[in-house]
């Protein structure tokens, strides 16, 4: 397990590379050019800036999260080919600075969705929260207004300029069924996986978060069966999954330990975090500790150890603790605590093996 830590870049993150370097066992950053619109080719000079910064702290930059997929690709429009060409060129450039894994997602319109960013937990810390009824009862128009007017309702990645495009985008998606989305994903993968193979890069799709359709938009990567299907679309080790325990874990039917075993060799990147799921379908993010949430984090880490996992892992969202001012879900303190929990489980497995051999 190679431990990495997400970093949003200078001036865009409250956490510094110096701090990241001091977290035990962290060897690299998970990064992206966050100011690049989806579909554009990433410029080499900007890529090299990240490389220089990471090198200065002895951190590698082998994991990119995310190179975002243009909506025209997801919609299957004729204009997709030009965007796919740009995607391939970006893959080629990233390979030249040593990138080995690229995370992306295929969620129409929205990335992750929450209804509150700073919901208070019993201990006084705050965390990201999803209120199912609120999202279920909303139409896209109402959503636009809420995003524009309500501070406590935020879709990360949704800048005001993009919000204006929401209505036409929803119109376009009316014609796109889940099966269409699968076909469009297959088309995309058939194009980019050979490029990824040539450059030694593993593509790692991120599951839908939450793992069910929202606002009438199809969402297709949300269960064991759907990941199985994804991996068969193009049967190559470079067509992999970012196994996100928190996204998949918001549906308690998802057996993530079983997925770690079944998808061995096709998980270049593990996102590890816990959520507490309530009976009404709401969920809140908790500390990484198994007993704090609904997801068996210790069991998942054990499963990675048992399957000889050599991919990248990062603690995913953490709570906001000790009054840390930080990006929602991406503070230093709780994610660093999370890493120590993950290492604790991992190292205890190693100790067990040594004892068995003795
Ligand atoms: C949230 C992240 C997601 C993820 C994208 C991958 O914090 O896990 O936004 O980066 O879905 O494309």
From TrEMBL:
Which cofactor(s) are needed, names only? Fe(2+); Mn(2+)
The EC class name is lyase
Query: Which keywords annotate this record?
Result: Iron, Lyase, Manganese
Any Pfam family: UxuA
- Please write the reaction equations for the catalytic activity of this protein: D-mannonate = 2-dehydro-3-deoxy-D-gluconate + H2O
User: Does the record carry Phosphoprotein as a key word?
Assistant: no
Q: What molecular function does GO assign, one term?
A: mannonate dehydratase activity
Is Cell division there in the keyword field? no
Q: What does this protein do?
A: Catalyzes the dehydration of D-mannonate.
HAMAP family documented for this protein: UxuA
Family, similarity comment: Belongs to the mannonate dehydratase family.
Protein name, entry field: Mannonate dehydratase
